[in-house]
Amino acid sequence: MPLGIDVTEAATPMPVLSPDTSCEDALGQLIIGCCAALDRQLAVFLETEDESGPHKARVALRRLTTALDAFAPILRRKQAGKVRSAAKRLFRALGEVRDADVFLASHPGNSEALGRRTLEIRRKTRKMLRDSKAVGFAPGLLKLYGSQELFKQNRRSQIVRAAPVRLLAALVMGDAWRAARSHGDDPAKMEEVARHDFRKDLKTLRYLGEFFQDFWPAEGWQLFLARMQELQDELGLLNDLANARQKGREGERTEVTAALKRATGLWAALSTMPPFWVPVAPPAAADPEPDL
User: Fold this and answer.
1) Helices 218-246 and 77-105 sit at what angle, rounded to 10 degrees?
2) What is the phi/psi pair of residue 18, to 5°?
3) Which of 24, 187, 201, 247 is the most exposed place for a label (fewest CB within 10 A)?
């Protein structure tokens, strides 16, 4: 578990997609779900000191950018790029608050001074978000989606927009799986920056799996998700320890070593699982025996 605070990512359920839903409608449902979650968590951050607000708002933003990337074949590159850039700016601003919360929680002995510093970071971030009218991001995206300006309009794109989303789901899951596996077999051998990129690619894989979870065989998906959550906990802990070191707090080396060992074992188990999103072909029928 990452340092000090609960960072559960399943707090806001995503809409349940049907395999036969069109790609366009499926993306719309995801956008609506992410925007609703973002609105709620921004309100939590702007109006309270609840530490869950910044983290859960960031989860909603990461889910949103994952959806935009997955449905890129039907989106206008310029429009989608603007939305993605705005989401990333908001994500980074909230990240400073989240990192301060984690650092505060991991330093109980210096809580008074760090508490004042964390409150100041929150105050400055709130002012920046209000000045930049961040609360208008989600309504603006919903308006853009409703206007159809987000979508490509050529004939080929219209065909893909109308196609069942199950066809796209397997393709993007395969791409995300290959991206995750490209980082290698051993998280302990990765540099910190590479391990952080590995962690982000795993998040993409998990979010895609959750978007389309009703498409998959329950047994394979549930085991995959359980192992993924355990691995993400260890990688999150390593990330928080790295951030703490950057702020001047050296953690126990044994803590890092143990987390790396657990992460390596979990990735070994996860990476050898068969891809549950690929339909298993039925066995070929045996040739009939010739009549004698």
Assistant:
1) 60
2) -95, 140
3) 247
Residues 156 and 170 in one domain: no
| CB neighbour burial string for 120-142, b if at least 16 within 10 angstroms, e if fewer | ebbeebbeebeeeebeebbeebb
> What tokens were used for 266?
């979990």
Same domain, 37 and 121: yes
151 pairs with which residues across the strands?
75
Structural domain contains residue 258: yes
C-alpha angle with apex 272: 268 to 273, nearest 5 degrees? 120
| Residue that terminates a domain, selected from 147, 163, 179 | 163
Are 199 and 268 found together in one domain? yes
Q: Which amino acid is at 17?
A: L
Type of residue found at 169: A
- Domain identity same for 154 and 203: no
Could you read off the pLDDT of 19-39 as tens digits, one per residue? Answer: 999 999 999 999 999 999 999
> Is 15 domain-assigned?
no
* 261: containing domain: 165-274
pLDDT 10s digits, 179-196 = 999 999 999 999 989 999
Q: What is the pLDDT of residues 140-167, one digit of tens each?
A: 999 999 999 999 999 999 999 999 999 9
| CB atoms inside a 10 Å sphere around CB 180 | 21
Which amino acid is residue 178, in one-letter code?
A: R
Cα–Cα distance list, 230 to 2, 92, 153, 186 (Å): 11, 25, 42, 16
Which residue from 234, 231, 242 is spatially nearest to 269, judged by alpha carbons?
Answer: 231
